[in-house]
Amino acid sequence: MKGTLNPLLGKKHIMSNQIPKSKAPNLPESLYKLRQRPHSEKVVDTGFKDAVYLMASMVAVFLIAIFVVVFIGSIESMSRYGLKFLTTSNWNPITDEYGAFAAIYGTIITSIFSLAIAVPLGIGTAIFITEDILPRKLREIISVLVELLAAIPSVILGLWAIFVMEPFLRPLFALIHKKLGWIFFFSSEPIGAGIAPAILILSIMILPIITAISRDSLNQVPFRLRQAAYGVGATRSTTIINIILPAAISGITGGILLALGRALGETMAVTMIIGNSNNFSLSLFSPGYTISSMLANQFGEADGNQVSSLMYASFILMIITLTVNLAANWLVKRLSLKY
Amino acid sequence: MTFNNNSRLKYKASLKRNIYNSLFTFISVVFTILSILPLILLLSYVFIKGATQINLSLLSNLPEPPGDDLLNAGGIGNALQGTIIITLIASSIAVPIGVGGGIYLAEYARNGKFASFIRFGTNVLSGVPSIIAGVFIYGIIVSTKIIFNSTYSALAGGISLSILMLPTVIKTTDEGLKLVSDDLRKGALSVGASKFLTITQVTLPAAIKPITTGIILAIARAAGETAPLIFTALFSFYWFEAPTSILEPIASLSVLIYNFALEPYEAQNQLAWAASLILVSIILIMNIITKLWARKS
Fold first, then answer.
1. Segments forming the whole domain that contains residue A291
2. A158 interaction partners in chain B (CB closer than 8 Å)
3. How far apart are CA A328 and CA A311, in angstroms?
4. Do A309 and A177 share a structural domain?
5. Count of domains observed in chain A
């Protein structure tokens, strides 16, 4: 079977026949022979294609499996507590009562406040890096430093938050409580771990994402826009605020949403500093919970209904982060540069 | 009209717009300083608190269970060993699958429906919170005891980390291969190389730099990851012994830092700082290598 069934073999005859013998009389016949593809080569080729196809599919398999496993794990709790799970904040393994309101509230409030801190800082830094205020070398070093901040494991940020940041900031928090205690956000005495230090550590963690993505979007704005603005006599600040930032807004918004997704799911640093309490409180100085810190804190020693309730909470977290990430992808595509 | 009044063209700092402009520059400088300040403070604290404890016995001893000895917390030998083993398990799963998947996306599927679906899935997977990977592995491996009846294990921890590494490896392989010039591919195919040979002998070697960069960054991220390990790999106060220990709980630097930071004992807290210094050094070195490497090209 080798050779005769090979379609290339037929071609070989045609090709060697087409070349007139008279024009190349001295060349040996073998030069015109095309190499035959052995059967094994084809097996390797198709086998390789199938193997990499399978590997690519693994992404989908993992993704679907994560959803299915978490969903199946939470069915028991879903049928038992239903939507009441989202609005109550009892978490009592002894009476078997579970409600994740405090954790969901904590997740959202920490993420939003940390965005409020990190967005101006991140965009300000990105502007500084992309403008020619300092020589290029120095700006590159700053850029690298911000990227390295993203590489620091969150557990180490948590360690630093416990032993360095929070004790250092406690007098400041106490002062805010004393002066502004009438605002419900500052209504409780700062006692150490709490939502406020968690917000600060979260903003440090999402800062590099916002900075890096804003920097890249600002760099992509065509230089002639800037030249035109300077040409009509605009100052740097006017150019940035009225020309460059609006042109780069799609990338920046996408970056902010990606950072929000990260903030919602961030676990370790928050778990270590938020105080892990399921008592709902509006004050930022009281201990609280986020969904991810609740998982980190309780999953190891949970059983029965508690596992199912924790799975339910992780399902909610997944839905929230998925929505935010999809919105980020959609926004970047939708609002992409028109220049 | 002649420009005899030259002073109108001169820069006047007192103008409202120029004051506003300087203020704007000043604010961006302040924001930049505020952004780098945490990194500098954090690194200096880790170095100051960790460096005093770095010696050989730190790396060769086992940690002491908290409360046993109030002055001596032991070493982090098994945690360093565990971090290396878990990361190796995770890489041995994520690197082949990730590189293979990236090859399929860039070399076979390019812009098809399936490819865009997988690229979308990769984006979604990279946005999944790391703790969810832990919950997933807990649900599918730890609680079901599916692997030789073992619950918490090094293997389970490694698999959960591999899920977090996978999107990075796929993305960088895909993008690295897409950058390879099509002329190379056509050249190889036209001299009679099969698709398999073209990919393994021509395009993969041409894209090896971005791919290895991506793999190193994925490994660096996995080495510092804690959330998926705390209820899949757990922790251990003993050495890893091949091959039985792979189905038993295993120590890791990141979980050691988490556990010991929350202990009320001073000695354990100090050990957490020492472990942080080792972990940060490993991760920063990997990141800086990839940055220097990228700059060379």
1. 102-334
2. 258, 261
3. 25
4. yes
5. 2
A122 and A215 within one domain: yes
**Domain co-membership, A25 together with A117:** no
Q: Does residue A131 belong to the interface with chain B, where contact is any CB pair within 8 Å?
A: yes
C-alpha B213/C-alpha B219 separation (Å) is: 10
Cα(A250)–Cα(A218) distance, integer angstroms: 10
Residue A21 to chain B, least CA–CA distance (Å):
24
Chain B residues with CB under 8 Å of A147 CB are 287, 291
Whether A148 and A294 map to the same domain: the answer is yes
Average pLDDT over residues B269-280: 90
CB–CB of A243/A321 below 8 Å?
no
Select from A15, A34, A41, A59 the residue whose CB has the most chain B CBs within 10 Å, as the one to mutate to test that interface: A59
Band (A17; pLDDT cuts 50, 70, 90) = very low
On whether residue A50 sits in a domain, the answer given is no
Co-location of A313 and A195 in the same domain: yes
Neighbours of B163 (CB within 10 A): 27
CA distance B27 to B210: 36
pLDDT of residue A339: 52
Q: Which of A35, A50, A52 to mutate to test the interface with B (most CBs of B within 10 A)?
A: A52
CB–CB contact A292 B129 (8 Å): yes
What are B111-154's pLDDT values in tens digits? 888 888 899 999 899 889 999 999 999 888 877 776 776 778 88
* CATH code at position A265: 1.10.3720.10
Which of A15 and B16 is assigned the larger pLDDT?
Answer: B16
pLDDT tens string B50-84: 888 888 777 777 777 776 776 777 788 888 988 99
Please list every residue in chain B whose beta carbon sits closer than 8 Å to the beta carbon of residue A317: 129, 132
Considering the domain architecture, whether residues A226 and A328 belong to the same structural domain is answered as yes
